[in-house]
Write the structure tokens for this entry.
Amino acid sequence: MPLLSLTTMSISTTETTPKLFVYAVLLFGISCSAISFVFIRESVERSIMLAAWRVLLAALLLMPLYIHARRQHGDVGFIDTIKRSLLPGIILSVHFITWVAGARLTPGANATLVVNLMPMVMPFFMYFIYREKLQRSEWLATALAMIGIVILSFNDVNINQQHFNGDMLCFVSMILFAAYLALARNNLESVASVWLYVVPMYAVAGLCSLLVAAATGPIIPTFEWYNVTMVVLLAAISTVIGHTALNYAMEKLSGQTVTLMNMLQFVVAGIAGFLIYNEIPTPLFYVAGAFIVAGLLLVVSYKK
């Protein structure tokens, strides 16, 4: 079977798609998501507005693929589309908003630790929604990854009452992100193309974020060319490619495998920080990265 192209990526059973291709799409998407911090850091847009623009622009950029998919697979009812996209879109919007708020109230190391705890949460969603149980390799890989996260945060995490609110917001954001990904499988199985799900879902998330942004401040964007470039790159690279790849992989792979592989974001972000901002990682970064990569190699190479 030839590899599926980006413009004709369809959702079908796991057996019909080469596993290597799915891993390649996921790894590329994770890399695109990991560099989102560069575009966020370089943009001067208000944080909540940045969250809104990234998904609204993603929906706009993907609209031709959505229209093509509708024509190819038959017209999809508006009510059915809204029903399928509403809940995950709202969850994604609240995830972005709580993440922005939480990250501002707690040190970066705390936020990184909390978001990387998602492999501890995803198994509950996958079991209660799909009755999906962890394989032995996934248990071992999760343990290795968690050891890496503990090592990474050993010297930097600062747990105290002052940061409690920020830590809790980041924790809520992490749970919402896991729920958003977990819902992708059921929704993607009900459509003929990934674009029939993610594009309306991004539109819902963007409109919800825009409403919150309008209630909390100005929504007029900053029309400065560099800022506009950063916002467009955030939408095109980190959202269109990054988030879409994560949603796509959730239908093809086990939820825990996707979650564990997503932890590579901190490794890619560390490399990007060094290359772009000359941020030299601590020795613990390499030790933690080795544990996480070892866990990922274990879960990817394991054959049922």
Notes: Residues 1-15 have pLDDT under 50 and may be disordered.
